[in-house]
Amino acid sequence: MNRNTMDIYKILKQLPHRYPFLLVDRVLAIDKGKSIRAVKNVTINEPFFQGHFPYRPVMPGVLMLEALAQAAALLAFDAIDTTPDEDSVYYFAGMDGVRFKRPVEPGDQLILEVELVRMKAGIFKFKARALVDNELAVEAELTCAVRKIA
Predict the structure, then answer these.
(1) Which are the catalytic amino acids?
(2) Would you say residue 98 lies in a domain?
(3) pLDDT tens digits, the chain, 150 residues: what are they?
(4) Of 48, 69, 86, 93, whose CB has the highest number of CB atoms within 10 Å?
(5) What element of type H or E holds 66?
């Protein structure tokens, strides 16, 4: 596999998330310290569709943002050449300019695009967006932080 991509096995080594909360299936491209393009395949089998909404399943917006944050984490860890361990955690620190533009439904492929704007002292600022069929689904500016917990 290309060094600039990640399959699910590499993703599992970088992110602590597991089913049902792992929301990145593959990294299509990563430009070290600059940007990442990843994918979340959305299926009817997602557990959140049972209640959101049974009559017309729609992916919750907060989970679209979480998928973007997970892609951002992969970009951040690659930028600083680290693999997270049990003594550190990657937190959301803020979201700005969040706009939802279209619903995401079963069968959609959510393309996650994240650009690293700046990083300093373990704080990362990103510009992020997710698309379905080249149509904007959500956009946001994300702030995340890596912190030691032990």
Answers:
(1) 52
(2) yes
(3) 467 999 999 999 999 999 999 999 999 999 999 999 999 999 999 999 999 998 999 999 999 999 999 999 999 999 999 888 888 889 999 999 999 999 999 999 999 999 999 999 999 999 999 999 999 999 999 999 998 886
(4) 69
(5) helix 61-79
